[in-house]
Batch of 4 targets.
Target 1
Amino acid sequence: MALFRFFRNRPLVIIVIVSILLIIAAVFTSRNDGNMGIVEGIVGDIISPIQKIIYGATSYVYNSILDIKERRELLANYQQLKERVAYLEKELIRMNELEKQNQRLRKLLDFATEREEFVVTGARITGKDPGNWFDVFTIDKGKNDGIAVNMAVVTEQGLVGRIIEVGPDWAKVQAIIDGRSSISGIIERTRDNGVVKGNNLFGFEDGTCSMIYLPLDSEIVEGDKVITSGLGGILPKGIYIGEVKEVTRAKRDLYKTAIIEPAVDFRRLEEVLIVKARTDD
Amino acid sequence: MKGWVICGILLGNVILQSSLFPFIQIYGVQPDSLAVLVVSFALLAGNPTSAVVGFFGGLLQDILYGQGVGIYALQYMLAGYIVGLVYGKVFADKMLVCMFFVVLTVFFRELLVFIQLFFTGLDVSLYKALLTVILPEIAYTLLITPLTYFLMRRLYRYRFMNRRWHFGS
């Protein structure tokens, strides 16, 4: 009776039959003797194209996902490397900067040790007039460091200018190329005296000085060196100013004029030394 | 129409399983998405749909990764048939009902695998299998169950999905 009822339940019968068939199939196909049976071969023939298509689709999706993942990693790496490059570039610039500063300071130091008795202090330039030339600029030392008006400002290359205003911790320097600047100079070879005036005025900024009031019989030529004369007691004597570039004489003038190329590179000034005229004051 | 949709779902499942799941597997454990599908069909359509889905879904897996054709087909077909028996007797709208049967199905299926391994002479401890494979797989499968079941329920709002199939007709 129970058997009869079992056979009346058609779904269950089908399930049981299919299950038995599947078990048999599993047993047959999972035997791994290396040889494909006939059934297995036929099944394989039917299956393998399907398998191929599904495998193709699968590996396409798989590879796409892998690509996305790899791209992400690459991107992350790229970002990291970019940051690193930026950092290293910055570092390199800083290093170069330090190296240059080191060289400049070393030269200044050599200069300072040679003239120890004159040097008041070293200073750093903190501000300047807009424009390429340093006509008037400020430095980061002042009264507190012993700086006073009219002290000379120099670099290891030569004379920069003089102090014109002093604050507690800052000072203003007028460069020798400033049109308002005039200092007394002397031609080193011929010992001719004259006044060195700046040529930078109202847009005529060529960065040179003119030495005026040179005697007519002066034998100065191009290339002669000009130093401070020390007259008037403002600036110390013998500080190198620059080189004579050209000697001219206006027709009715009773003196010669020399165009002087200053030794100091006013476009690239960063550190200076403050020098006083005499050691005793 | 219904047959093609199911075919598409099964193919999509196989492709997902072998392409996406390797990326989301945790300690070598992947969710059993076919089990979720079979349970969904069983709760939403009952037999014979769920048994047929189980059979063909399993067969596909057999062909693609099985060592012998029939093992997965048997497991999923039986699961589909047994869960399908409760069709109409439980509240299919409840997510928890689906999750409950998913747990049962995965457990039952893994138990069959274990028995099969046992008979092929492999020495596997049930305790270890339970801890390292079966329970993690159940947990992971439960994670993907809500979305799958939600989508399947949406699918069964279409009329063509509700046409009945009959055993032997």
Target 2
Amino acid sequence: MMIELGHFALILALWVAVVQMVVPAMGVRMRDERMMTLAVPAALTQVVLLLVAFMALTQAYVTSDFSVLNVAENSHSTKPLIYKISGVWGNHEGSMLLWVLILALFGAAVAVFGNNLPETLKARVLSVQAAISVAFCLFIVFTSNPFERLDPAPIDGNGLNPILQDPALAFHPPFLYAGYVGFSMAFSFAIAALIEGRMDAAWARWVRPWTLAAWMCLTIGIAMGSWWAYYELGWGGWWFWDPVENASFMPWLSGTALLHTALVMEKRDALKVWTVLLAILTFSLSLMGTFLVRSGVLSSVHAFAVDPARGSFILAIMVLFTGGGLALFAARAGSLRQGGLFAPISREGSLVLNNVLLTVATATVLVGTLNPLAAEALGYKMSVGAPYFNMTFVPLMIPLLLAVPYGPLLAWKRGDIAGASQRLFAAMIIAVAGAVVTLAVASDGPLLGPLGVGLGLWVMAGAVIDPLSRARVGAVASDELVRRLRSLPRSAWGTALAHFGLGLAVVGIAATSGYKSERILVMKPGDRVEIAGYELAFAGAAPGSGPNYTEQVGRFDVMRGGRTVTSLAPAKRLYDAPPMPTTESGIHNSWRGDLYVVLGDPQADGGWTVRLYFHPFVRFIWIGALIMFIGGGVSLLDRRLRVGAPQRAKPRSGAVPAE
Amino acid sequence: MYGLMRAGLRAAIRAAVAGVALAASPLAPLPAHAVQPDEILSDPALEARARTISSGLRCLVCQNQSIDDSDAPLARDLRVLVRERLTAGDSDDQVRDYLVARYGDFVLLKPPFNARTFLLWVLPALTLALAVWSARSLFRKPATASPTSNALTGDEEARLAEVLKRTDEGRAGD
């Protein structure tokens, strides 16, 4: 009964979305205010209906209702509750339902918080949002219905792939989708602006927080996926340049570019055309990500051709919105007046450089991801893997990272690069010292190691100098400095934090890529082995069991400098439903890095294959991503205050002019 | 969602392997995992070369994994093959050529430069040129202040000619 109710709510949401798409847009044309304001109740109704649909499916999962095909295929009665819930989006149909639900939530947020938007802009934005919603609701209803029944119902379900039964991965898809879908806001605002032929600083002030929120979700979503791959896949790899990873990385890259141009638009009324183009491209890349992952085209172009219904449907959605958006852009971009002249060496100029490099990096990832698909369609099988991306993507990041600390220190319109360099002198010293020390400690690694560590330290130190220099460190007394630092706008702190996180992640990437160590060997109980300053004693392996698996757990006593540090218990698991082996690595974390132990196969002579890795500073990658996320959040708080109540923003006495 | 895809494929491979192994014997070990101790060459220099080559070769039955990372049986066969060729005295390029001759360009994670892949290698440079070119125009001063802006546009010229012609016609009618 609940399931039928959910199904009905989904179809009803589709029709509400149709109304929301058509009526407000007509209202704008006919200058009928009542028709325009219909967008608000429609958006709210839509989100309520989709929530009902989503809750209905969730309830079926929680109660293990195997008369629902989707539940029977993807769940199992013995699964822990959290994975029953995450199972809702752990499959194609349910994840698409989550997609439209998040889309509707964003639409509802505009409806609720958009009181200070011009009436016509709000109506148009909600209408474009509804158009996307219609497309995806149709997709779900016709090709991916999660509410299909199964008769007779099986005794139990097929279960969820055990390596997906993991806390990080349970919340990875919702964040990723919130990121993808969040960029739809920038898209809808861009389309509305192109139709209106008007785009001003207020527009950017509206788009920035949405883009920032989406970017934050995508950042943390990608980081979670990478973290999961690191500890779950069993050898400590954290990024593979896999097409599915690239699918989420491309919108992140162009979304980062968008975030920065929107800043120029807001503050200086410049770079309008770029901002609009990036808004369209970023959401198009999000749609492409959905298409790549959901159509099956990645496993094989031919697999896609055999069952083309879903793939062609998403492809059609992608072509419609990307093509439509770009066509509208081509027709109307000329009408956007460019304002605010600036010199190449200026805050704007540095953000243009940021854009150029990030856009080219996005294009590189795009061609690397799509070229094999295109070639396969033409009958030529080829692969594009990490070596290609390391050769093309990494060189683009070097000038970008060099430029990051300069950006915030340059003045708008015309900057003083010599003055900025002077203020960054300490950062240069730190960076060079870091690179030299790295080279001295580990001279046998690749040259990219010290270079990366130096660059990361440069960006981190630059991020520390930025707020200090804004508060005029050195020129004022220390209590005055503290007061000035406290009165810096939150967005300035957000920038500094996010850049600091980026630098930290770069240090982690450089260190772990350049200097990881590895031992692969057979160990018998009682054997000892050394790696990266640790001594490990293997105490043997013993069987164990969990709620839905049996396992072999190895025990390793870890010593360092003669003292026992910890004991690690890597395991090989065999899950019941579906029957599948997984590796659970044993990881010991210290400030120097991670000791990573994997239990392999038992050998005929009583020994076990054992893999030991030491990944120096690897956690900096995810801590860096987390700091970037927090930086976004800090900046968002600032923006929301300004957006929500511009009239309340009184000048505070004694505040330092931030820019 | 990349996790789901990757996981699904890895899992499918593992499940297939496990299925075969379990069918063969109820006590059969679980599937192998990337480089095995018995594969490692005693000569560390040769082994290092083998690792470098392996990380650039695709495990043909996996999704975008190198044979160095993959736990598929085929990847193990290829790793052993690479080591055999190296022990036999092949250079790194000879090993790669040997594999390309058997499996085609598909086996290379860094594709060669040819007619079907030139976009891959040229497009990043082209995009960079295009982006720099379009960024350059942002810094150019608009032409409003220059004296040429006082000249008439083609449209204005035509309208002026029209007006003059009409005036002439009017005079002729006097």
Target 3
Amino acid sequence: MEVTKSELEQLNEVEPVNTSTPVDIDIAPTEIIIEEITRNHKLLHRHRINQDEITIGRGYQNDIILADPHICPLHLSLTFAQGVWRFNDNNSVNGTVLESNKNNKQDKAQRIVNDGDVIIIGKSQLRVVFSNRQVAETVVFSPFESLIDFIRHPIAVFISIALFMLIAANITYLNQPTEINFSHLFVSAFKMALLFALWPTGIALVSHLTKHDPRVLAQLGISFSFFILLWLSYLLEEIINFNSASHANFGLAISLLPVGLSFSLFWLNSYIGFHVSAKRRMIVSISITALLFGGSYLIQYSKKPEFNPHPQYNATIMAPKFLVAPSSNVETFLARSAALFKQASKAAQKDQEM
Amino acid sequence: MKTFFTLVFILLSQSSFATEQAEKIFAQLTPSLYQIKIIDKASGEKSSIGSGFQISSDGLIATNYHVISSYARHPEKYRIEYLDHQGNSDQVSLVSVDVINDLALVQRQVDTEMPYFTLSQKKPIKGEKLFALGNPHDLGMIVVPGTYNGLKKESFNERIHFTGSINSGMSGGPVVNKAEQVVGINVATSGNQIGFLVPHEKLVKLLNDYKKQPPVDIMQQISAQLMASQNKLMTALISSRWQSKELAGKAIIPIIEVPFLRCWGDSNADKKDALILLAITNCSLNENTYLSSHFFTGSVELDFRYMQAKDLTDNKFYHLYQQQFSQAGAGNRAGKDDVSEYQCHHDLVSPTSSTSTGQTINNKSIFCTRAYKDFPKLFDVLYLGASIDKKQQAILSHFTLAGVSQENALTFTNKFIKAVSWK
């Protein structure tokens, strides 16, 4: 099994990037670092050893003791001679596999261990890293960091949740056709907040389970801020729908706004919760957004009847204070209505031909 | 005492006279009476039945359009057959229709001259005894005595009001006077002894037109009739006086002064817990044209709603108001095979009011139309106007027209929008 360098990097960002040149391989240092890693290349332990021979096995006399039952008591040893490290399997039951990070067949045949190679013994994996390995450049804090620091402040989280509840209460109030009391509004807003808190807490739980920092407050703060932004975009869409006539088409631009906001939310959720590469984060956020909006579009599309006897029109009306656009006169309205007759006749003819 | 006996005697003799007469009429006219059956070709069974009667010696049979409508719309799927009093049946062909008056002429093959019903020369007089013939519920031919009660009031297309039981299956059967002349054709019932007949003049006209020049294509004939009828109706609506009327003392709405549009009112003034006061005036044409069991046209409906908030924020008032605004539907029944889907557009419209108050109004207006597939240049039209210029009050004006031309629809819309305003 050949695992390439790029794959390794993708799987674990904390792994130092190998920038070694062929010169480094020829002159391997005596000081060596052996990392115990999981199959997913997550780091478990790191051993720094400064000696010419290193023994590895289940027995307590070894330099590196592994508890894996599939490993022999004296499984293998690494020796430094003539400027290179070689490994030597001591006739172990389950053998030793060297996963070289370079396509260097000769090295493999000679059992030469290079920087970044992974040794598989039993069900455990060991990665060999030379001490002169160069690490990647320090990552500067992104501008989001300060935003996240601001949003994860308990007061900011409290305010965003309170604002969200206010909006939820307002929506309930507007939709209720009968009289409604304050406690009812509060309970429904509280329920709504609990329901929407499932998403950030769910993500925090997943990041906790995957051995990342949960950062619950940051997730809550970011998610609720974006829920508020999404509602604002909906309000903006309503105002535009109310003010615009059907011939002025803002439809597409305004419907893309919630898509963009959702994408940003998912991206930030993953930025806060998981240490993954930028490319991976982008792919995951795009996938979730596509799944959400594409899925809901598909559901709508599949529910659409073959023939709809009811007129479909934009019925958005709002209080006069939201009205900013000027009105047309009746003649313009009728002239635009006249065009519909042609459209309808065309649609009827098209159906007839089908 | 003597007078009492005389009275009883007169009553008895009259009723026995009526029975005798019915028997005589029935016996003489039965050979010219038919049951009309629409046979589904694939299954070979009848899919609907009605009655019919022969009106010429060479085999022309009159019936209702709605009896044979499925054949007229889908001649490839059905055939028409007659069944006479002796149980003979044979195929007939559809030769002419009048969809507006719900009449149709079918032709049977005859070898020799046959007896037939004569059409009356004059109208019956109110209270005159008439006899309706037909085959209700496939139970066999019957005769039903009844009374002529003049023409139906407030109707756009004339119908005779007949007091007597007309049941389904009798459609297309003749109604004769004592002289055995046809004065009407059974067409509909409102239950409880109220029946409606098509006046015989309509049949006379259809017959004369057919004799002059038989129609080339039934669909084209229907199309022309629908076009002419909508023109007559819309001209009457547009050129009549539009009386401005107050609704709830706040809105001005038009009431078109034609007898055939009937208005009804309603409000929720009795509901103390309602958040919005609602007053409704609804005017509609109480008849429509049957084209098939899923396709009606010729309907007209006008609907006005005045709404006033009671202790509500503007936002909530408009939110609830929008729910009323978003529920408009078609005024007539029509399916996928009959019409296209609705095409709609919306705009903010501020009409220059034609009402005496001269008040302005600002509306969000919706206009939708769908085209008829088989009848070119005919459309169903729907308009909705929602006032958006008052914080706590609103007028919702709405109409639907079925089966009208573009020109008539636009003229009517223009007049309608300008006739609604604030007081």
Target 4
Amino acid sequence: MLRFLLGRLGLLIPTFFGVTLVAFSFIRLLPGDPLDLLAGERGISPERKAQLLAQMGFDKPLWQQYIDYVVGIFHGDLGTSFASKKPVLDEFMTLFPATAELALCAIIIAVCLGIPAGIFAAVKRGSIADQAVMGTALVGYSMPIFWWGLLLIILFSGILQWTPVSGRISLLYFFPQPTGFMLIDSLLSGEKGAFVSAVRHLILPSIVLATIPLAVIARQTRSAMLEVLGEDYVRTARAKGLPPRSVIGLHALRNALIPVITTIGLQVGVLLAGAILTETIFSWPGIGKWLVDSIARRDYFVVQGGLLMIAAIIMLVNLIVDVLYGLINPRIRYN
Amino acid sequence: MTNTSPAPKADTSRLEAESRNATKAQLYEFWYYFSQNKGAVLGLTVFLLLVLMAVFAPLVAPHDPDIQYRDSFLVPPVWEEGGKAAFLLGTDAVGRDILSRLIFGARFSLFIGVVVVSIALVGGIVLGLIAGYLRGAVDTFIMRIMDIILAFPSLLLALVLVAILGPGLINAMIAIALVLQPHFVRLTRAAVMAERSRDYVIAAKVAGSGHLRLMFKTILPNCLAPLIVQATLAFSNAILDAAALGFLGMGAQPPTPEWGTMLAEAREFILRAWWVVTFPGLAILITVLAINLVGDGLRDALDPKLKRS
């Protein structure tokens, strides 16, 4: 197992340095230099520009800039936001819980609905119910989620007026946020109605973000279950007279879940990409909206830092999924 | 001995005829399995209709997509109160006919799909063939680069690339193609690695085929099935990503009647004019759904494992 783990880590290290290289190159590849962009039409005097460039280390040779950048990363220095003048890492850490809360809720919805839907479709293979579930899953999979979000806003916020259009909680509430997770903080605050307000704000963005992972998990569960249901040991379990519930729930599902776990792990990238759109539509103050806004106002150190952090999170989750996969499926470990 | 010389010629023509028949039989077999999947046939029909609509857009569209009718701002669809027969799906905030813009928009979406898939497919096949055939350091180098691209969420990387290249449809297409490419590289490489030690490849090598011939003429045709399925998936992903970039203001720029850009323009009217938001999104959904249905059908028809069951 240790060898397997070390092997996976060994693959990750060059990829991580590659990612730092991409993030490093990003600012250097932009047309013009960041200071000109920042100065805009007002312009900047050559002396002041040289001074600022030296301050940011842009006057050094490229290789040295890269080494400084990587050393900075390991010291938690991702640069400073042009707009807020705050360190990028601090901003990231402040906003990340909002995205994490949204993504966690979305993946919980996706798993809790997707796996049962997939099992149901597999067990009822070929029936109208199977076709209906899989048809719905395909529609979900094909959904432009930015449009889906707008439709839900029209229906639930516009016509029915059940949910708010934007934000994480009503402006009426103000309380300390020790965890950054609004659901938990609103409960801890003890303010009446705060938790309900947080749930009402969270529900639509979570549904929108869950849509594609839900469809993918349902489809994957169905095909994994179908494969397993045809195996000899399932036939044996049935022949022994075990009730269908335990054949499906115990014998088939456990093995079918192995590829599904990988699929769930792979959804992290989908969730973070989806967060960009979902947060923009619902004005959700998370990483996705922060990055889109930063690209729009050319706050490039933020984009660079966000890019690196998101890639690092995805790589970390993929590593955890790989290790989990190796733990539950020994064949992978020994190959 | 005298009648030995014409024999190879006869053999060649017979072989050619046989191979033609085999191709025909394969096509029939493919269509048989594909047409078993009713959803796939429906998807293909819708897709072909969309292609026809895009090609003949100037003939089909009732209005010019860019003309602003100053007396008809935000006219609702014809079946709603206040709707006008001249504007079946209503007009947008500056009085342009939504139906005509959607019809012309099909051109952009299909064009985006074709261009992105072509770039990603060609690049992916070449890199995947090289990696899988040569192995060693070249393989490691190519695959690590692909791992790096895959470490970023595709939309984020596309957004950043567009920030570098500048907003616009062409740059968005290049960015999306680059982001979708690693999937093709991985698939091609895996297929090539599975094929390269097969007897027919070794036979071709022994017969003196060069590296390029082995890669492109001997091995590649036998790796095409998964690539075709992936290409349809990439086609729908390209349309979705380009629409998302358009929606975020980084793709096609107004007044281009691209569906994502239309949605972005419509956002501020969302609570008072539902039709300006609903129809462009529906057009994206129908197109992507049709292509995904075709993709599912192709996968079923091309996957030998499914055929046996």
